[in-house]
Specification:
Strand 2 and strand 3 form a beta hairpin. The longest helix has 15 residues. Helices cover 25% and strands 29% of the residues. It is α+β, with helices and mostly antiparallel strands. It has one domain: Gcn5-related N-acetyltransferase (GNAT) (Aminopeptidase, 3-Layer(aba) Sandwich).
């Protein structure tokens, strides 16, 4: 498996995976992904198998310490030393083969290299144990109501305060 930065050429495949992995109410639009590729390219990774995108992880630096709906929107927000994970997706035909784990480890390594303080994310309750395997700690209910769903905030400290 190869992991590289996402490019505008990947947008169609990214949208295919988005449609396969998220309900319409929670799915990001083409415009949102295009914005993320343009503005957070150093934090938007794709995983490839046989030269085909099979997974993605996109994030953005944030000054916030908890997830909010504003982080998901295509808008300028103060950047900081916390990396907010916005999307982690694997083509359902490639799930349970380590694609998401490889993307998470890649993002953690890049965040450490960049001197980030922490990573944070919002997930649904059934996924919390998965993220705990990577060292993320449950912070509690999220302020985010993205897509009308209930989310939990989790964080991974990369350095001591």
């Amino acid at each position: 498996m190869e992991i590289r930065y996402a490019t505008p050429r990947d947008l169609e495949r990214i949208m295919e995976i988005e449609a396969l992995t998220f309900p319409a109410a929670e799915a990001a639009t083409r415009e949102i992904f295009a914005y993320r590729i343009e503005h957070f390219s150093e934090w938007f990774f794709v995983a490839l198998e046989d030269s085909r995108v099979v997974g993605l992880l996109c994030a953005r630096p944030s000054a916030q310490r908890r997830m909010t709906d504003a982080l998901y929107e295509p808008a300028e927000l103060p950047a900081g030393d916390t990396l907010a994970l916005l999307s982690l997706e694997t083509d359902p035909a490639r799930q349970r083969r380590g694609v998401a784990a490889a993307l998470i480890r890649h993002a953690i390594g890049k965040a450490r290299d960049a001197g980030m303080r922490a990573l944070m994310l919002a997930c649904k309750a059934p996924l919390a144990p998965y993220y705990e395997k990577f060292g993320f700690a449950l912070l509690g209910a999220s302020a985010s109501a993205h897509g009308g769903a209930s989310w939990l905030d989790m964080a991974l400290a990369l350095r001591r305060e």
